[in-house]
Amino acid sequence: MLIRKIELARELNRMKKCPNQTVQNILKAFLAVRSNTYNQDDKEAFERCENYRNALLKRSEKVSFEIFGLDDEKTMGEICSKAASPKIWCQFLYMLAKKSASQNMLEIGTNLGISGSYLLEATAHNHKSKLITMEGVSQLCNISSRRFSEITNLDRFEIVEGLYQDTFPKILKNPVLFDMHFIDGNHQQEATLEYFMKLKEKTRQQTVFVFDDINWSKGMKKAWKTIQNDKSVLFSIDLWKLGIVITNPSNAGKPTGFKLFLSF
């Protein structure tokens, strides 16, 4: 515990000295969540999102995953309990989107729309912002769409429904340039690397990628290491569960890495 606190203090010191504004935005988001420092609007947004989560946990409707070739059904409550992003990490995504004033956001893995709800709440006052999110299961798309429409106007979000092989090419052809990505879809090495390698080519000059479950498996660990060392990466931040990189296609230097602990 003491060693981690010392390491965290050292890394925070390094980040505070970094002149990159995107790094500073990530640092502000991290410190806000770690110290539980939120304004009233933030607290009310969190309460709305968690009320939605709690309502989902009680729902017993069955969801079919037949589209993926699986003869499997789970209740919405089970999916919410096992697959939805935990509260603290959703709050971090919210603060990151807010502090960065994210404009065009891409989420791979809509699920029940909990993390998407946080992202839309974070950018509620930015009328130029838009969330595009991908999901294969029709039932999940429908419930997420209903939830998102309660938060904001229909023109501020788009749920792209279908199998990855059909929908990802559409995303790549979309003229929108994303400044924030939340990659929470297929947690496999090859898929994760494909997401990154193709999406980094259609971004703004400096872009944030957030990867979920970077230590979930040996394959994800390898994918994260490859991404960290990619030539387009300016900075990487390892939060154990989440991994963040800031990219710039014209980068010619060696990436700078940071390691943070959101909780002990």
Kindly summarize this structure in a few lines.
With 264 residues, the chain is of the alpha/beta class. The chain has helices spanning 2-17, 21-34, 40-57, 76-83, 87-100, 114-122, 138-151, 164-173, 189-199, 218-228, and strands at residues 62-64, 73-75, 104-108, 130-135, 157-161, 178-183, 203-212, 233-238, 242-247, 256-259. It has ten helices and ten strands.
Shape: globular
**Class derived from helix and strand content:** alpha/beta
- Number of helical runs? 10
- Taking pLDDT < 50 over at least 5 consecutive residues as the criterion, the unreliable ranges are none
CATH architecture: 3-Layer(aba) Sandwich
Beta-strand content: 15-25%
Q: Specify the CATH homologous superfamily.
A: Vaccinia Virus protein VP39
Question: What is the end-to-end distance?
Answer: 7 Å
Q: What is the fold-level CATH name, i.e. the topology? A: Rossmann fold
Q: What order do the helices and strands come in, and which of them pair?
A:
Elements lengths: L1 H16 L3 H14 L5 H18 L4 E3 L8 E3 H8 L3 H14 L3 E5 L5 H9 L7 E6 L2 H14 L5 E5 L2 H10 L4 E6 L5 H11 L3 E10 L5 H11 L4 E6 L3 E6 L8 E4 L5
Parallel strand pairs: 3-4, 3-6, 4-5, 6-7, 8-10
Antiparallel strand pairs: 1-2, 7-9, 8-9
Helix pairs in contact: 2-5, 3-6, 5-6, 6-7, 9-10
